[in-house]
Amino acid sequence: MAGRFSYISSVGIFVMIFYAILVFVYLIASNHNSGWDLSRTGANTLDVKTKNVLESLNFNVEIIIFDKTGENKAMEILDLYCAESRHVTCRIIDPDTRPGIAAQYGVDRYGQGVLLGRHRQCLIDSVTQENLTNAILRLKRDKKKVIYFVNGHGERDIAHEQNSGISQLRYDLAANDYDVFPLLLMRYHEIPRDADLVIVAGPRKSFLQEELAMVRTYLGSGGNMLFALEPGGEAGLTGVLEEFGIVLDNGIIVDTFSSMAGGDNTAPVVTMYGDVPALQGFSYATFFPTSRALLIMNDLPSGVEVNWLARTSDRSWSEHDFIALFDGLDVYPDEHENKGPVNVAVLAEKELDNKTVSSVMVFGDVDFLTNAYLNISGNKDLAFICINMLLDQGSLITIKDRPAQDRPFILTPSQDRIIFWVPVVVIPSLIMLVCLAVLFIRRRA
Amino acid sequence: MRSVYFKELSIYFSSPIFYVIAGIFACISGIFFYNAMGYVSLLSTRIAQYQPTGALVMNDILLRPIFADISMLIVFIVPVISMRLYAEEKAQGTIELLFTYPVSDLKVLAGKYLAGLSILICMLAITVVLMVLMSLITTPDWGVVLSSYIGLVLMGAAILSLGVFASSLTKNQIIAATLTLGLVLCFWVIGWFAATSPDSSLSGFLQEISIVSHQARFLKGLITLRDVVFYLCFSLFFLSITLRVLDSRRWRG
């Protein structure tokens, strides 16, 4: 009896040690990031730029994606990030079952996500490697980017909560890890040195000469500015913009083909976006109520490069007859008026002597940034992409998604017959014939 | 071990059960293949109409569904392969004879297990014809094909270890097969429960021990040390339990 007990005990101890070793080995393996991607396109491998970013990551990042849970393309990408760095954790939350969390992070669409780290957050619009990696890069910055909104010329107010204000934009920028301040230029001798971006949102009065000098000095030192200028609201900025190759048209864009439902022809819907990396794949419609056209000079000043960012349809034009337009009369494009597609957003970059780049982005409208329109369709997305574009120049990376490479095929009738008969009938029949042969041989033996 | 291995193989190949299972397996996987190819052809027709220059990711819409279907078939096929390994010996009373051989239990188990695994690999080899047929029409990603097969073999090996364990518990082959199927399905659907409460730590644990969650990466063309070690540890775990079950005759008397 004692011998049996001793035997059982020794076997039990051996078994426990063996199982503990198995668990230990598995735990080591599961924490060890070794894998072989055998796919032809390398679809399961992160881009080398992403790997470098993750390798130098020294704080924890939580990625939360708001989408339907279960089999999910987003999860496949997130798995790669989690496997690559022990600092990254990922989860998917269904915004329908947990709307509170979605609202907390300002998420209003399936597929959006938020990255949390260093007590900061960064919202992304869709789960792509480029978005995720650039969001991590933003979290890695040692200081927050600072945005100033100029006031004092009747600009839209970042504190104004009504429809015409831009308080919503301020909240969203703050939620995306930006410091946002108002800036009354008249009080200063120069634009603050910590300004990463200065926004002029819909001025109604002209800038003073001293203010224009400040703007020129700021841009001359590599600053970035975003102007949203309504028709009739040049604010004396024409000269500054012409130094960047941009000319303001004095009409209002009328689009008879693509305008906002329920509105008139002066609220064009834009679906054409420029060929700049940040706007690749951007496909939402955006609305620009009472917008002006922006022209690009044929002979650009030296060192200046201008790209259009958003354009109206080819059935639009810039109408100069305001009286007829607002009296509700039928208007048609005249010969001297600019015909569509016309630019509603352009980006000019000037290379300075010290090899730094100064950027000026101009929108022919400010309404699309206001509380009334910001959350309509893709307005907010476009605004954020453009603001990020100005703030992130040179600091972010571009990662091309691997395109689908396989050519589609359409089965011919003969192919269709072959792929049915061979695997479904011929091979099973052959196996059954072998079975009969084996049985026959066994019986004879 | 070698003699046990070859003896088991000869039993399998001389038994009509193997051929019937292989025939059914080939036929059903052929139907899955035909359906998947037909679906892609239909999708291609639509692309040709609306997006003439469009391209597809064949790995996602063709290879992965086919191999996922085959892995589901394995869940049902392996219990039939494994059910007889020990249960038949017990039913026929030859297990006592086996224990008197000058071969250790471990070697007998290894011989039987490897024989079952060889049979499974033979069956999977039949599906290579499907890949050859596919290559006549389109260009499959052979890397993904290879990793999928590696994943299927490893998963099959894990399920087979469960089957050997179930077979060692009973002398009734039907009970052995049913028990295996039940256990495999438990380890299969356990991942679904994890999806219902994705934030809990229990969910993470369930995902880790789910057979299917480790299979997914193989089907994408990704072989990770973690998944390989999981299947190997899973197999070793149940094989060692089987060994203990066989060994229990010593202290039960």
Secondary structure blueprint with pairings:
The complex is a heterodimer of chains A (445) and B (253).
Chain A: H1 2-31, E1 35-37, H2 48-55, E2 61-66, H3 73-84, E3 88-93, H4 99-104, E4 113-117, E5 120-124, H5 129-140, E6 145-151, H6 167-175, E7 178-184, E8 197-201, H7 209-220, E9 224-228, H8 238-242, E10 246-248, E11 252-255, E12 269-270, E13 272-273, E14 286-287, E15 294-296, E16 304-311, E17 316-319, H9 322-326, E18 343-351, E19 357-363, H10 379-391, H11 413-444
Parallel strand pairs in A: 2-3, 6-7, 6-8, 8-9, 9-19
Antiparallel strand pairs in A: 2-4, 4-5, 10-15, 11-17, 12-14, 13-16, 16-18, 18-19
Chain B: H1 2-14, H2 16-50, H3 58-82, H4 84-92, H5 95-100, H6 105-126, H7 128-137, H8 142-169, H9 173-196, H10 201-209, H11 211-219, E1 222-224, H12 225-252
Largest sheet geometry of chain B: none
Beta-strand percent range of chain A: 15-25%
The number of helical segments of chain B is: 12
- Averaging pLDDT over every residue of chain B, what do you get? 87
Give a brief rundown of this model.
The complex is a heterodimer of chains A (about 450) and B (about 250). By secondary structure, chain A is an alpha/beta fold.
Structure characteristics:
heterodimer, A: 445 residues, alpha/beta, Glutaredoxin, Rossmann fold, 3 domains, eight-stranded mixed β-sheet, four-stranded mixed β-sheet, 11 helices, 32% helix, B: 253 residues, mainly alpha, 12 helices, 86% helix
